[in-house]
Amino acid sequence: MKFRFLLFFLLSFFFENISLSLDSGNYLAGRYALSKKDYDSAINFFEKAIDINNINKEDHKEDLDVKKELCTLYLLKNKINKCVLIGKKIEKYLFEESTLIFLALIVDDIKNKNLNSALERTKKIKRDSYERFSISIIRAWIIAAEKKNYKKSIEIINELEKDFAINGLRYLHIALINEYFKKYEEANIFYEKSINSFDSPSFRLIQLAGNSFERTGQKEKAKKLYLKFIKDTNDELLISNEINRLKKNILPKKQINNLSDAMAELFTNIASTFRSDFTNKYSIIYTNFSLYFKNDFEIALMLLAELLEDEGKFFSANKIYEKIHPRSVFYWHARLRKARNLELLGENKKAVLLLKQMSVERKNRYDILQLLGDILKNYEKYSEAIEAYNEAISRITEINKNHWDLLYSRGMAYERSSQWEKAESDFLKVLNFVPNQPEVLNYLSYSWIEQGLNIEKAKNFLIKAYKSKPTDPYIVDSLGWAYYKLQDYDNAVKELEKAVSLKPTDPIINDHLGDAYEKKERKLEAFFQWKKALDFKPDDELKNKIEIKLKSFTDNSSINF
């Protein structure tokens, strides 16, 4: 019945809203594929739905929505030329909300040096969309690179002055335009403004700014900038080329030499800057625009691979990482992420092999051994994991707050291999560096509670963790369990009920709530809570404990179950 109703609803919606010229079966199949993020299948079905092979015969404006959807999918799959083909056919039917399609047409115009057409199309972009950022800067770069009008290009970018959210991006491209016109001193001013606009300036921004400082003879200033980046990120590899070149007194090459370079830079900047605000769809499309202008732009390739990881497309991400050149500063990080993806794909043996090979290549790098330890820990090879973590730590000159997650990981491996004193020591070291880290507070506190140690202190730690993450079901459960162990059953029930509402299918949390109900003489509720816990397939140890409690309840109950 449910299937019939769903089918009726889908078909009713379809025939009410879509023209009969459309192949309904392929359209619905495409929508389903799209909901599963199977973009290749969605493209295939939508192409059949609108008869893509006859797209040039007539307009078929009644199929507009499907064509717009197909355009977006082409952009996601880096098939920009195909989107442009459809976009030009339906352009006269598009309105301001179709900003991505207009942007694709503009990108294609610039690529093919149809700059007047590009400028005209920018007028069709909705002014309150994210695309307003890119459009203003695109216009500025066209004026700068092709019209050679410095003053006008700066004026256009400064139209964005009231958009405080993009000040860093605006300053960056003012700096780049100044550098393009060889106004290096002015460029430096705006590079500094851009850096100061971000809490954590990107490697790319540091690279561009440092290079500009070098060109104006400010080598010490550039060096300080590079060294600060290493200190802030704990990663000397990315910036190593800049430092090595600086030592040799070799001036850096200009990064922006033409309009295509500027466009590649812009779209990567936007995709990266607004990554947390955008849906992945937008970030991927913007990165593809960047690669349309500069297909070997490694910063864009790395970003694209990370975005694909966010989509769960680990195989596709690894194909991108394999494009990174062995001499690139990104090569190490590309292989590191590839190894992580191999594990996620279930190819842990390949991941371990790759990581062990890499650990020999650079004996000063600890990150590779940390990831190796994480993979071994995930597969319950705790002794081997501890060995990897120990070697990682031995490669660090001075442990600081940047290494807290390494200590935390080793602590977990110690705890799971029944080496509690060593585990506790690592957890306490972490809290010296990051006192309010909620996951560590929770792990340490729950371990104490289970051992009957420091329960009052554990409760106080958990209250701190709760304030940081009040909707984390495991932290709420631990806090409720601390109250239970302290015989504060009212608060125990309160917190454990909240934990169950946050994670209804967790057997441990349900079992804890059952125990709390029992102490409050809510026997029947306790019984049903334990039954629920059993339904959610606990491990054998917990299963046996729950079964004993249930048997005891039924043996001593007058209620017939």
Describe this structure in words.
With 561 residues, the chain is mostly helical. Among the domains are: 14-94, Tetratricopeptide repeat domain (Serine Threonine Protein Phosphatase 5, Tetratricopeptide repeat, Alpha Horseshoe); 347-435, Serine Threonine Protein Phosphatase 5, Tetratricopeptide repeat (Alpha Horseshoe); 437-561, Alpha Horseshoe (Serine Threonine Protein Phosphatase 5, Tetratricopeptide repeat). It contains 31 helices and no strands. Helix 3 (39-49) runs antiparallel to helix 4 and helix 25 packs antiparallel against helix 26 (455-468). Residues 1-20 have low confidence and may be disordered.
Blueprint (SSEs and pairs):
Elements (H helix, E strand, L loop, with lengths): L1 H16 L6 H12 L3 H11 L14 H13 L3 H11 L8 H13 L3 H8 L8 H15 L4 H8 L9 H14 L3 H13 L6 H13 L3 H15 L6 H8 L11 H15 L6 H14 L4 H13 L3 H8 L9 H14 L3 H14 L5 H12 L3 H13 L9 H13 L3 H14 L4 H14 L3 H14 L4 H13 L3 H14 L4 H13 L3 H13 L4 H16 L6
Helix fraction by DSSP (H/I, runs of at least 4): over 70%
The second-level CATH architecture of the domain at 437-561 is Alpha Horseshoe
Kindly provide the radius of gyration, computed on alpha-carbon positions and rounded to a whole number of angstroms.
29 Å
- List unreliable stretches of 5+ residues: 1-20
Total DSSP helices: 31
Report the strand count: 0
Task: Give the overall silhouette.
Answer: globular
List keywords for this structure.
mainly alpha, disordered N terminus, Serine Threonine Protein Phosphatase 5, Tetratricopeptide repeat, about 550 residues
